[in-house]
Amino acid sequence: MNKLIDFKSLPLRAAKCEPEWKRFQVKNKKKLEGMDLQVHALHNKISQRTDCLSCANCCRSLGPRITDKDLERMAKALRIKASDVILNYLRIDEDGDMVFKSMPCPFLGADNYCSIYESRPKACREYPHTDRKKFFQIFNLSIKNAYTCPIVFDVLEELTNKP
């Protein structure tokens, strides 16, 4: 059963929870290093009950870093030259990374489907990162992502509220 997502209230809810998540991180620093299996199990459970297509908040608000491989895949999927992908869709940000010119993602449809889903950037493929090895290394990033992604929010909530 997919859970309906109220992504608009997420930033406020995450801001309320952030101090507790940070306390958990400090208090459980060593324990976090061995919690990958628990975090991955939470990720799987929560992802199964979450309908990303009812949200797509990440596609509306987060601009992924586009690698050269991403650029090649996108160009092939769009059947245009890589230089045209850059010209039409990308810019170089303040860190020197290729990112989308504007958000929401130019490939996000009104139905929240991605028109280049099979060829989407690596950052999109890996998001929300809660199934990543060495989760403890990205705990701070996960706190930031909880403002955008209901899956991350719920993973952090379940992880930190366990007795």
What does this structure look like?
- Helix 1 packs parallel to helix 9 (150-160).
- The relative contact order is 0.22.
- A two-stranded antiparallel sheet has the order 1-2.
- The chain starts with 9 loop residues before the first helix and ends with a helix.
- It folds into 2 domains: 7-59 and 128-160, no CATH class; 63-126, no CATH class.
- It is mostly helical.
- The chain is built from 9 helices and 2 strands; from the N terminus they run H-H-H-H-H-H-E-E-H-H-H.
- Strand 1 and strand 2 form a beta hairpin.
- The model has no long low-confidence stretch (mean pLDDT 93).
- The protein has helices at residues 10-27, 29-32, 36-49, 57-61, 68-78, 82-89, 122-126, 139-145, 150-160; strands at 90-92, 98-100.
- Helices cover 51% and strands 4% of the residues.
Summarize the model shown.
The chain is mainly alpha-helical. Helix content is 51%, strand content 4%. The two termini are 26 Å apart.
Give the topology, please.
Blueprint: H1 10-27, H2 29-32, H3 36-49, H4 57-61, H5 68-78, H6 82-89, E1 90-92, E2 98-100, H7 122-126, H8 139-145, H9 150-160
Antiparallel strand pairs: 1-2
Task: Kindly list the characteristics that best describe this protein.
163 residues; mainly alpha; 2 domains; 2 strands; 4% strand
Percent of residues in β-strands: under 5%
Structural class: mainly alpha
Strand order of the largest sheet: 1-2
Shape: elongated
Cα radius of gyration in angstroms: 17 Å
Cα-to-Cα separation, first versus last residue: 26 Å
Total strand segments: 2
- Largest beta-sheet details: 2 strands, antiparallel
The tally of helices reads: 9
Question: What do the pLDDT scores average to?
Answer: 93
Regions with pLDDT < 50 over 5+ consecutive residues?
Answer: none
The amount of helix comes to 40-55%
Q: What order do the helices and strands follow?
A: HHHHHHEEHHH
